[in-house]
Design goal:
Radius of gyration: 22 Å
Bound molecules: ligand PAZ
Largest sheet: 8 strands, mixed
CATH topology of the largest domain: Rossmann fold
Number of strands: 16
Number of helices: 11
Helix content: 25-40%
Mean pLDDT: 91
CATH class of the largest domain: Alpha Beta
Shape: globular
CATH architecture of the largest domain: 3-Layer(aba) Sandwich
Strand content: 15-25%
Number of domains: 2
Order of helices and strands: HHEEEHEHEEHEHEEHEEEHEHEEEHH
CATH superfamily of the largest domain: CoaB-like
Structural class: alpha/beta
């Protein structure tokens, strides 16, 4: 595995990195002056490009449901929110009306002079509360959106966000819900296709993350079968928790496909990185059940069928619990001073 410092030394930041860094700096300075609590929510999956000038890449299933819903609930608890998400994944507020849903709520009325567009009366009750919350979050500048696509973009943005969050000390929460790839192709090992080879290549790739994924896979192409070697991504939770934001309340998520490994793996992670909380979930049941694993305890949060049918989202109690723990964490830090 590459060491985390080598990773940054050998991979260039994305083109929009300096713009995002300025936005993060401005947002954090403003909220720190106001003594606000702040949360970095990471959301969605990272890609692993297979070549320079990327046409093909490895992706994963994450839609950003957990992160985008959680961001809304943190706003309800008066946290300033940095929403660091995969480009084009679900976002707070707009997530409620995806695809054609939004157009289906609109009516258009034409007369000879002009056209008027209006929300259908039976959609107002659904749309108005979401729009009102969105407007408040934007007008009070309580949310900042920054996005990534590849695992390298994600790593650069994560470190830049941490640099800005360090000043908040105990008032910062890191809520790391993104599904970050465990492997990647280092810059110097990437395929550099000739323009002709690119044109010839007709195959599309979509590797699904799986427990059995071996770190070396063959990449087929129209011209034969080049072999690609996938390297392990350094575990950034190590420098993050011990060096970048050592005083923050760091929460990581752990996704498993095997229920029997859930708590063992979560506890391993806590022992290794010494952060505050792991929220463990199983792929198939993640929308209605999670397990909170702390250094001393583990317990389950779940939604009943009735609660799910009523439209309750599991992110609401998850965030309420994290906020409660964060409050206790701040109080005990204050008592020590
Ligand atoms: O984005 P989503 O709602 O579809 O999925 C959420 C999740 C399963 C990616 C998240 O809850 C999670 O477990 N993230 C960490 C994944 C990991 O173990 O790296």
């Amino acid at each position: 595995m590459t060491h985390w410092e080598d990773f940054y030394n050998t991979h260039l930041p994305p083109a929009d990195f300096e713009d995002n860094r300025s936005l993060l700096k401005e947002f954090c300075e403003r909220h720190n002056k106001l003594q606000n609590r702040i949360v970095l929510v990471t959301s969605g999956g990272t890609t692993v490009p297979l070549e320079h000038n990327t046409v093909r890449f490895v992706d994963n299933f994450s839609a950003g449901t957990r992160g985008s819903a959680s961001a809304e609930y943190f706003l309800d608890h008066d946290y300033a929110v940095i929403f660091m998400h995969r480009h084009k994944s679900l976002e707070p507020f707009t997530r409620h009306f995806t695809g054609q849903q939004f157009f289906d709520m609109l009516d258009i009325a034409d007369n000879s002079q002009s056209s008027t567009i209006a929300i259908k009366p039976d959609s107002v009750d659904v749309f108005a509360p979401v729009l009102a919350k969105y407007k408040i979050a934007r007008e009070t500048q309580m949310i900042l959106y920054v996005n990534f696509t590849s695992v390298v973009d994600y790593m650069w943005l994560l470190r830049a966000a941490c640099e800005c969050l360090a000043a908040f000390e105990e008032r910062a929460v890191l809520y790391l819900a993104a599904a970050v790839s465990d492997f990647y192709i280092p810059e110097d090992m990437m395929h550099r296709p000739s323009p002709v080879a690119l044109l010839k290549s007709k195959l599309k790739f979509h590797f699904v993350r799986s427990q059995n994924f071996s770190p070396t896979h063959k990449m087929q192409s129209g011209d034969g079968a080049p072999t690609i070697s996938l390297q392990l991504v350094p575990k950034m939770l190590a420098p993050l928790a011990s060096l970048w934001v050592p005083h923050a309340f760091v929460v990581s998520f752990k996704l498993e496909t095997d229920e029997n490994l859930l708590i063992v793996k979560a506890r391993d992670s806590l022992n290794k990185y010494k952060h505050k909380l792991v929220i463990a979930n199983v792929l198939q049941t993640r929308k209605h059940r999670v397990v909170f694993v702390t250094p001393t305890d583990s317990y389950e949060l779940h939604l009943s069928r009735e609660q799910a049918l009523q439209g309750l989202e599991i992110e609401e109690p998850i965030v309420a619990d994290v906020v409660q723990k964060h409050g206790d964490f701040i109080s005990s830090a204050e008592q020590r001073q």
